[in-house]
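Appendix B, Record 12. Input sequence as logged:
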Amino acid sequence: MVKVKCTISYDGTNFNGFQIQPGQRTVHGELEDVLYKIHKQQHIRVSASGRTDTGVHAKGQVIHFTSPLEMAEVKWKKAMNTMLPEDIYVHQVERVSDAFHARYDAISKEYRYVIHCEQEPDVFKRNYVYHYPWDINIERMQAACRHLEGTHDFTTFSSAKATTRGSKVRTLYKVSCEQNGSDITCVFYGDGFLYNMVRIMVGALRDVGTGKLDPDDIPKLLEKRDRRLAGATAPAQGLYLWRVDY
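Logged structural output:
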C-alpha cells in the first residue's frame, strides 16, 4: 500500500463545500469518484487538511489517500487531472510515509480574503470577491489586525453553530490587510482556525474600516468571548484556503 499526498486547488463556486454530502456536488465527492475509476471500482477514502464551506475556494488544499497501486508521482498527477472536472486541479503529488495525515500533521494554515471596494459590482468577480460599495479605511483595518495577532481565545470569532469541543485558543502569527487598487486582501496565518473564524474576523475588520468599531475594540471583543458582539459574517466567495504547512 502507498500513501499519496496531493496539493490541490479548486473554484468553490459550484460546490456545496468540500465534505461529502448525499445528493450534493462536493470537492470530496469528485475526488473520490475519480479515484474510484482509477482503482477500477474500488473505493478509496480521501482525507483533507480541513473542510471548506459552500462557495469557498482553495489555492493550496492538501489531501491524502492510501492506494494499492504503484504509480510514479507524475502519473498520479496526470491520471487525476485528466479525469477531474475543470474546477479542481492537482498541482503536486508526492509519496509520503504511512504515518502522514493531511489534517493532524498540519502545523499552520494561511487564508486570504478579498474585498472589492467599488461603487458598482464587477460581474466577472462576483464569485471570487466580496463586493463592498462603501468607503473603507485601510489604515484603521491595519491597526485592528495587530490586535488579532498572537495567542487568544477566539470564541467571539467562532460561529455559534460550531461543533468544535474543547479549547478555542488559537495563535495567529500574521494578520494583515493590504490594498491594491480597488481590492483589499486580508491575510490570516496561524496554527489553526475555528468554524467561520476568518469570515467573522473579516466582518469585524470591515466594521473597523467603516468606523462602526474602533481598532481598540478588538481586544475587548476577544475578552468578552461572545459571538453576538462581532457583527455579521463576511460572505463565502471572498475566502481562499491559500496554503497548508507541515
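DSSP finds five helices and ten strands in the chain.
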